[in-house]
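cron nightly-structures :: item 1 of 1
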Amino acid sequence: MSRPDDDSVRQLRERLAAAQRALELLTSKPARAECLREIARLRWQLGEIDDEALRRAEDFADGFSYE
């Protein structure tokens, strides 16, 4: 993956911050799982986590289900 430019990094960081705020408010397991998945993908795009960490985060999010 190519390194994002400064404007893209700013936009990704804004989206990450918004997703992290949303996670604090969400109570539904499926909604929280999707938000966690989005946070992991944004962190991956920013280069904060590697492919393996992204896979683990997505696997964790996939573990949420309706009970």
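cron nightly-structures :: done
DSSP finds three helices and no strands in the chain.
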